[in-house]
Structures are given as C-alpha cells and as structure tokens.
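Write out the 3D structure for:
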Amino acid sequence: MAVAGGVATAGFLSRSPSGLRLTVEGGGTAEAFRLPNLVEGQPDVDLAHLRGRPVVVNFWASWCIPCRKEMPAFEAVYERVGGRVAFLGVNHQDSRQLGLQFAAATGVRYPSGYDPDGNVAASFGLVGLPTTIFISPAGKILERRIGPFTEHDLQATIDRLFPA
C-alpha cells in the first residue's frame, strides 16, 4: 500500500528507461485550481473549466532533471491527443523566468500554470517531481505517477485510461 493525498491506495514501483517511478491508483475528486498562466497576459489555467474532458496534469520545474527528459514526450503526445484530452502543466516552486525558458527549451506549448509557492501541489499531496495526475471527465483522480514518462508510456497510459 502507498499513501497518496492522505488516502491509502494500491501502488507499484517500477523502473523505465527514463528512471524510477511510482504509480498509484487514483481516488477522490481532483480539487479544482486556478493559477496565473506561466505566460503573463495569457488566460489563467483553470481546472474547473475543463470538467467534462479527460485531463492530464503534469507538475514540473526548471530545476528538475527528469522533467527536462520527459517534457518533449508530453508535447508530442499532446499534439496527437490534444483534441480529446486536455493537458495542463503546473510550474512548481520555480521562478517565472526560468519556467518560461525551460518550457521554450523543451518545446512545450500546452498551458502551464505558475505556482511559485507550491500550493496546488500541496493540495494534491505531491511528494516529488515530476508528478502526473490523470483526471476523468467527471473530475475523479484515476491515477498518479511520480517519476518521468517516455512518450510511449504516456501514450499507452492515456489510451488505457481514456480510450478513444
């Protein structure tokens, strides 16, 4: 058993080519959040506005080495499935300028919220970076993954959780 967000759930630890990761079954409803967009002047990043669509939320930071490895995979999968699955990034405990540089360097174009104090991560029980949360159209947390994804693994997880 693993504990995620205060709820005991089944989980498993595995190693992939991109590193060690912990996958935890979901549970509970995703707490809605609204953050300023990492890109100033762009609309806020608002999870509540995505209710009714499947959502992938990825917590990242410019100082996170595994995040740097996985971000191009997220952008590639987003480009393929962005019409049926919403993607949100959360720039966690970082400077806005470094976050912007990081997003540009990794090619990420989906919206990312700016969370310099880590409040959203705390509300989700975040324990490490990168962390990805898969949320159903009804707002239920289906799965959490702590650790990096490869493009193939991310696509397979989305196809399993959100079949076309």
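The chain has one domain: 2-161.
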